[in-house]
Recover the amino acids of this structure.
């Protein structure tokens, strides 16, 4: 079963075209890593999938639900971890998770909160305000928030950015567990080693277009990096209108 | 019931954050206090003048103080990235609107409840009349209802602190006129039927703008 079906997706901000006819299918249990330079459209794509931004054209179905017409159902099936933690500084770790748990109608919420805080190594800080946490600890709590309702699809927007070693290890363990439980993951990253480590498929997004896709069998970091560099070179060449200008 | 539970969760969250930071309540209260003290000195009021200017001074105080609170309401969510956290929740987005609106209404009402006795003392006038409390509630509800929608709209703009009053004041003029006139009627000892049309205007304003906000909030918060 396809958990994410994207057909001819376009997104424009005024005259600026961010996505130009994206087509991607991501199956249940599949882990897709999306790499691309800054401004390629990775974050825009994830924001559209998270129903935070409306697409300009094309169709998107997430977990079988239409993205535009059934936004609340789509949101029930996704978890998002992005650059921002989406946490309230003036609430404790426990209060943050309790609030989001109530919004997601999580069953047996207190047990779930305890389990997640233990999983991300923050059980001992559960009553402390988020504003007293380090960046890495806040990011770990953000991961717990994204997993609170046990989403079928996890969207990760450059999740390793700004993480300390411990937080990066926690995230890796979480991702390994998700892959083991056949959860669908779409991750954008600049870090090829991290990105290719666990994924089943990787794709390169440049100037709003998917320019390359490779399955697990073809994925060694060195060759993928070479392909990525070639596509970046081509995109710059196209952008500047040719060599010498 | 699910809808109400989520509205309640947002209200409780806002109250919990406010009780911890006291950012909105303290700034609204101090500002309102300064306004009534300045008006008190500026007018050099004599007893026979009080009833004429009191309704206007009272509602200027409430609306300007309320504006401060409304400005902070979505700015706190936006600056911490939490607005996206709210928008990601699997809930009709009108629940977010009603949660935030009720929170703003509660904070404004708390400040008004503290300011009214001080106002009574400074202006040497008893404001504790059931009719006046009804007008304060209706006026505040209308102001918070429209203000929450425009606050969500203004938070995406660059000059958001300026944008909110520019957007909001022209729209709330009918409600403010009705509130001032009805307050004046109460203080002048008019009977209910003499000022019923102002109360009807206030109720109609509240119903219409709460309905419009309910229908349009989804489009306002989405990029």
């Amino acid at each position: 079963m396809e958990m994410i079906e994207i057909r001819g997706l376009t997104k424009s901000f005024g005259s600026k075209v961010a996505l130009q006819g994206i087509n991607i299918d991501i199956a249940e249990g599949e882990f897709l890593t999306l790499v691309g330079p800054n401004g390629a459209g990775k974050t825009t794509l994830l924001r559209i999938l998270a129903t935070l931004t409306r697409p300009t054209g094309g169709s998107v179905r997430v977990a079988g639900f239409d993205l535009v017409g059934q936004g609340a159902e789509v949101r029930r099936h996704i978890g998002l971890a992005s650059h921002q933690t989406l946490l309230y500084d003036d609430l404790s770790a426990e209060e943050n998770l309790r609030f989001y748990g109530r919004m997601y109608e999580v069953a047996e919420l207190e047990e779930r909160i305890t389990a997640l805080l233990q999983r991300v190594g923050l059980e001992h800080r559960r009553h402390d305000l988020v504003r007293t946490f380090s960046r890495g600890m806040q990011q770990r709590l953000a991961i717990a928030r994204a997993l609170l309702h046990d989403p079928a699809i996890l969207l990760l927007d450059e999740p390793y950015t700004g993480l300390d070693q411990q937080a990066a290890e926690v995230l890796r363990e979480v991702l390994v567990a998700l892959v083991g439980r056949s959860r669908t993951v779409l991750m954008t990253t600049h870090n090829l080693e991290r990105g290719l480590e666990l994924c089943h498929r990787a794709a390169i997004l440049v100037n709003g277009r998917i320019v390359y896709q490779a399955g697990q069998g073809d994925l060694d970091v060195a060759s993928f990096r070479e392909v990525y560099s070639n596509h970046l070179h081509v995109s710059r060449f196209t952008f500047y209108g040719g060599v010498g200008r | 019931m699910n809808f109400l539970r989520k509205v309640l969760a947002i209200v409780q969250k806002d109250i919990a954050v406010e009780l911890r930071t006291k950012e909105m309540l303290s700034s609204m209260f101090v500002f309102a206090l300064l306004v009534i003290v300045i008006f008190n000195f500026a007018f050099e009021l004599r007893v026979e003048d009080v009833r004429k200017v009191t309704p206007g001074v009272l509602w200027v105080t409430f609306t300007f103080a309320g504006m401060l609170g409304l400005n902070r309401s979505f700015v706190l969510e936006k600056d911490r990235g939490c607005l996206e956290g709210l928008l990601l929740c699997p809930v009709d987005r009108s629940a977010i609107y009603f949660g935030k609106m009720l929170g703003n209404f509660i904070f404004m009402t708390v400040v008004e409840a503290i300011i009214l006795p001080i106002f009574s003392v400074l202006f040497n006038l008893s404001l504790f009349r059931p009719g006046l409390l009804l007008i304060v509630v209706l006026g505040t509800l209308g102001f918070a209802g429209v203000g929450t929608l425009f606050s969500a709209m203004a938070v995406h703009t660059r000059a958001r602190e300026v944008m909110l009053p520019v957007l909001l004041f022209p729209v709330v003029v009918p409600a403010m006129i009705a509130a001032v006139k009805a307050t004046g009627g109460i203080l002048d000892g008019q009977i209910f039927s003499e000022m019923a049309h102002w109360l009807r205007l206030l109720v109609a304003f509240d119903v219409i703008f709460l309905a419009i906000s309910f229908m349009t909030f989804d489009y306002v918060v989405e990029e």
